[in-house]
Design a protein that fits this description.
This protein is an alpha/beta fold and 171 residues long. The chain contains 7 helices and 8 strands. Strands 1-2-3 form a 3-stranded parallel β-sheet, sandwiched between helices. A 3-stranded mixed β-sheet has the order 6-7-8. The chain has a two-stranded parallel ribbon with strand order 4-5. A hairpin with a 5-residue loop joins strand 7 and strand 8. Helix 3 runs parallel beside helix 4.
Length: 171
């Protein structure tokens, strides 16, 4: 894991934020999360104004780790990065978006729920994936002896668990 991934992992949780009123809510939310010991957030692009929310949160809390979630296009990646996003989360394993982020040098956490997703992530040198809570029971945690230190890992949205891609395949 790289420095950003370690910092996110040490926090133990990544709040997924959907703000319908970023001008009103982004700054107080960023300050409250940081004051509460959770200096990380994923701002979802499911709501209009996601880039504004990212920008406002980063301005209010420059040390906070803020990323963009539910990213579906390269245009959204560009918009998120211009606003100050430090990582990208996609709902699925899209090799084109992975490659685009890798070319830009930004961490991407693609959504992975199937063996095919995890294999595609592994072959793309993705070290961390995002998965849904419903996919969590399908694999063991990285404390498993089947999981080596260089295996790809994933976090299951809505939980603080870390998932090992290798253990997904060796159940």
């Amino acid at each position: 894991m790289n420095k950003l991934q370690i910092a996110i992992s040490e926090t133990g949780v990544v709040p997924v934020i959907k703000l319908n009123h970023p001008q009103r809510d982004a700054v107080p939310l960023a300050k409250a999360l940081c004051a509460g010991g959770v200096p990380v957030a994923e701002v979802t692009f499911r709501a209009a104004g996601a880039a504004d929310a990212i920008r406002l949160m980063k301005e209010a809390a420059p040390d906070m780790i803020v990323g963009a979630g539910t990213v579906l296009t390269t245009a959204q990646i560009d918009e998120a990065l211009a606003a100050g996003a430090q990582f990208i989360v996609t709902p699925g394993m899209d090799p084109d978006l992975v490659r685009y982020c890798q070319e830009k040098g930004v961490d991407i956490f693609p959504g992975c729920t199937t063996p095919t997703d995890y294999h595609t992530a592994y072959t793309a040198s993705i070290s961390t994936c995002s998965g849904s809570v419903s996919s969590a029971p399908r694999y063991r945690t990285c404390s498993s002896p089947d999981c080596s230190e260089d295996s790809s890992r994933g976090t299951s949205s809505g939980t603080a668990s870390t998932i090992c891609v290798r253990s997904f395949f060796y159940q």
